[in-house]
Specification:
The structure holds 2 protein chains of 2 kinds. Chain A is mostly helical. Chain A is built from 6 helices and no strands. In chain A, helix 3 runs antiparallel to helix 4. The longest helix of chain A has 18 residues, at 5-22. Chain A is globular, with a radius of gyration of 18 Å. Chain B has helices at residues 2-19, 23-34, 40-48, 58-61, 93-108, 114-126; strands at residues 69-70, 77-78. Chain B has a two-stranded antiparallel sheet with strand order 1-2. In chain B, a hairpin with a 6-residue loop joins strand 1 and strand 2 (77-78). Chain B is globular and about 60 Å long. Classes of the chains: A mainly alpha, B mainly alpha. The interface between A and B is medium-sized, with 19 and 12 residues.
């Protein structure tokens, strides 16, 4: 009986920890991504779009959701490499619109829409939130890649 | 060996000195490009006014750029723009050119003139 404990305990710990890992999207360290992209918005987890979507985003930076986010080629190329290397994953799936074109907004992907279906457009527009681009407004651990439901606090 | 060492150290010191820029260096550069001196007053008006789009500089940097601002769309905190409050501002050519490029296009839908850059920098340098 005593002999089974070392196996049982880590297995139990893993089971308890698993749900918390389900909504974890830590952003791997990357200097040009932080410098060129995360000065205007949070460093979105590359895992939340597929590689084709990231390529499309990075090909349209001079007109990036209504702002000029131009990045010179010296920095753009390594960022594309970083984003596509870390892109996608099982839960994100293929991020295309109905016509098959790569989606540019994480907030339009099927997983995002499903996960946020209980929230109205008005909630996202609150002064304390501003837009779905502001993950950290509700996901208190977003900066550390923690999107677990238990750590969501929707501001008034 | 010692001599090589001292030559290397001198070269290193010289190269750092050549790359470290100050807000004053940029002001001189923009005034030279404009062929005219900067106006603090004109820079202040420029910073606060909307010109061709929904945004002014103050939309993100606030009317008091010695204070932190917030990105008007994403709410991301922005460190103060005035050199007196944030010593890293206007010390790197790559960054200065990049941000004038992006932000002038957002606010004015065109590039800024050298005169506009000189004016706005002179005003920012006057904010304490």
């Amino acid at each position: 009986m005593k002999k089974r404990r070392p196996v049982l305990l880590p297995a139990l710990a893993l089971l308890i920890a698993l749900p918390a890992y389900a909504d974890r999207y830590p952003v791997p360290k990357n200097a040009p991504y932080q410098e060129e992209c995360a000065s205007c918005h949070m460093a979105y987890p590359p895992q939340l779009l597929d590689a084709n979507s990231w390529r499309a985003v990075m090909n349209g930076l001079p007109k990036h959701f209504g702002t000029d986010a131009s990045v010179d080629e010296k920095h753009r190329v390594p960022i594309v490499d970083f984003l596509t290397r870390n892109a996608g994953g099982g839960k994100t799936g293929v991020t295309v619109d109905a016509s098959g074109k790569p989606l540019l907004r994480i907030s339009e992907t099927a997983r995002f829409v499903r996960k946020h279906r209980e929230l109205s457009a008005a909630t996202f527009k609150r002064a304390s939130i501003k837009s779905p681009a502001n993950c950290g407004a509700c996901h208190t651990g977003a900066a550390e890649g923690d999107y677990n439901d238990d750590h969501v606090r929707i501001p008034k | 060996m010692r001599r090589i060492q001292s030559v290397l150290i001198t070269a290193l010191l010289l190269s750092t000195a050549a790359h470290a820029e100050t807000p004053r260096d940029f002001l001189t550069r923009f005034e030279k490009e404009a062929g005219a001196t900067a106006s603090v007053e004109r820079g202040g008006r420029f910073f606060a006014s909307k010109q061709g789009s929904d945004w002014s500089c103050t939309s993100c940097h606030t009317e008091r750029p010695t204070q932190p601002g917030r990105h008007v769309k994403t709410d991301k905190p922005i460190q103060p723009l005035a050199p007196a409050a944030n010593a890293v501002r206007f010390t790197d050519t790559g960054k200065v050119d990049k941000w004038f490029g992006r932000n002038c296009n957002d606010v004015l839908s065109r590039v800024c003139t050298a005169q506009e850059k000189a004016d706005v920098l002179a005003w920012l340098m006057a904010q304490k």
